[in-house]
Amino acid sequence: MIACLVGWLAMPDRQTELRLMLRALKLPAIAAIYADLALKAAKANLTHEAFLYELIQAECLQRDQHRVARLQRLSGLPPDKTFRTLRLERFPPLIREQLERLRSGAFLEDAVNVVAAGKPGVGKSHALAALGHELVVLGHPVLWTPTANLVQALLAAKRDLRLPHLLTKLDRYACVFLDDIGYVQHDRDEMEVLFTFLSERYERRSVGISTNLTFSEWERIFKNPMTTLAAIDRVVHHSVILDLMGMDSYRAREAGDQHTRPGAPSPNTDQTGAAA
Hints:
The protein folds into two domains: 2-74, no CATH class; 77-253, Rossmann fold (3-Layer(aba) Sandwich). The chain has twelve helices and five strands. The chain has helices at 2-9, 12-24, 28-43, 48-75, 93-102, 124-137, 147-159, 163-170, 188-201, 219-222, 225-236, 250-260, and strands at residues 113-118, 142-146, 175-179, 206-211, 239-244. The protein has a five-stranded parallel beta sheet.
């Protein structure tokens, strides 16, 4: 029967008509491969069910690839900060274990937050970005944004009476990653919209946060002690804390290693070798 199908497909008018129908049905992968696959199926004596399975599998695979590519493009994730480029061996065993569990994406089901806290240069942003890339591969929509950028977008939406609309739009993301929350010194309006955002996602959607501040220092962000406690409560209640505070900056170590290599200029000399 597959051989008869191959003969039918050999008719030019039939092939043109079939391609048009497949494209109208939005089945581009099947439209691209059905003729070649029919020949292979005839040679391998595949059943109709096996031939159909191969066609549908190819279509599903292409759709998954396109979906991941689209999610990647819309995520804002830094493209070079993945698990492939993350030097996991630098992290303590507990952190490596936590990251390995988070990679499954199961934490999203319970709206668990992820907070990476540490000094500048320890890799907290890289770790969260790598996690974001893994979630995208799993098919989850995520958003990566500097905290300052999100705060300004929320402020503009509030000014234009569009804040509920923006919050609804952000709700489409399974996880929103706020990078460098500790670097932003908020005034009252900024603090309020950030608190509103965290409150809206509480126990509904996940948030990922990188910060160089301990929780006891978050009053620098939210100013008011009661608001600070309420914000911390919403973030920490259901959360995984990646505590990197005890680590030293790997960027500083790498810079030091470069200066100690044979032939490397001394940190006390300029590029010509003269004393600085």
